[in-house]
Amino acid sequence: MNKLIVGNWKMNGGLADNAALLGALLRGWPDRAAADVAVCAPMPYLAQLQQLLQGTPLAWGAQDASAHPHGAYTGETSAAMLRDFACRYALVGHSERRRYHGESDDTVATKAQRVLAAGITPIVCVGETLAEREAGRTELVVKRQLASVIHTVGHCTSEIVVAYEPVWAIGTGQTATPAQAQAVHAVLRAQLQAATAHADRIRILYGGSMNPANAAELLCQPDIDGGLIGGASLKSDEFLSIIASCPVHG
Ligand code: PEP
User: Would 209 be classed as within a structural domain?
Assistant: First the structure.
C-alpha cells in the first residue's frame, strides 16, 4: 500500500498563491512518486482545485464537513456539497476544530459518517494535548476519540483514514519522536484490528511538524502509513521533499 501524504493548508492561500503553489508542485512532481498525495484547501478554493488538479496525480479535499445533511446551518458546508467539487478526502476532528469550535467526539463521529455517506474518505484526526500526555493519558484519549468514530460508522470503519496528531506537536516545530509516534500508531492499529477484519487497508498518518528533515525517519516506522502536513505543505519544495521521502515499497 502506498503511503498517503496530505497537505492541510488551514486558513491560508488565495487564488493567485494557490495557482502558483499547485503549479510548482505539478512541475516538480517526481517521476516515480511512491505516495498518494492530496491537499486540503479552504472551502472557497475547492472549485479552483477541481479545475486545476483534475487529471493530475494530486487529489484534493476539504478541511471539515458539516454534521448536518442540509438546512438552516448558516456558514456550514455539507458533505454532499464537497462531493459536487469531487473532493476525495475531508478532514474531520482536526484538533483546531475540537479546540476552537468545541467539536466533541460525537460530533466528529457524525461528521465522519456524513462524509462516508457522500462517498468521500474522512481523515479522522485524533491526538492528545501536552497535559494529557504528561498525565499518562495519551492512549486513553486517542482510543476514546477513535472509538467514537468506530462505533458510529460501524462496518465502514475500513474506509476511513486515521491521522494521529499530538496537539503539542502541531505548528510548534516540536515533533513526536519516531518511537513516540510509532507507539501510538501501534495502539491505534490494534484498536482498528479489533474493530474490523480489514484494518490492514486503513492508513494511519502522523501529523505534527513533519518536515523534510524528519519525514523519512517517521515514514519508515512500521505503523506510520503517511503524513498530514500543515506548515510544510505551503512550500512546494518542502512538500515535494516529504513526498520524495516515502519509501518506494511503503
Ligand atoms: C496540521 O495542521 O494538521 C499539522 C500537522 O500542522 P503542522 O505540520 O504545521 O504541525
Answer: yes
Query: Residue 56: what pLDDT?
Result: 97
- 22 found inside a domain: no
In-domain check, residue 197: yes
Q: Whose CA is nearest to atom 1 of ligand 1?
A: 230
Protein residue whose Cα sits closest to atom 8 of ligand 1: 230
CA of 233 to the centre of ligand 1 (A): 9
Q: pTM value?
A: 0.97
| Number of compact structural domains in the chain | 1
Q: Which residues contact 239 (CB under 8 A, 6 or more apart)?
A: 5, 7, 25, 229, 232, 233
Q: In this structure, what CATH number is given to the domain that contains residue 146?
A: 3.20.20.70
- pLDDT at position 1 over 80: yes
Range of the domain at 126: 3-12+34-244
Residue owning the nearest CA to atom 4 of ligand 1: 230
Cβ atoms of 223 and 176 within 8 Å: the answer is no
Cα angle value 75/37/130 (rounded, 5°): 65
pLDDT reading at 133 higher than 70: yes
Q: Which atom of ligand 1 is nearest to the CA of 231?
A: 9
Residues 6+ apart with CB under 8 A from 105: 93, 144, 145, 148, 149
Block residue for cell numbers 492512549: 139
Does a structural domain hold residue 28? no
**H runs (alpha helix) in the chain:** 15-27, 46-53, 79-84, 95-100, 105-117, 130-134, 138-153, 178-195, 215-219, 236-244
Distance between Cα 40 and ligand 1 center (Å):
12
- Cell numbers for 199, please give them: 484494518
Whole-number Å distance, alpha carbon 227 to ligand 1 midpoint, is 9
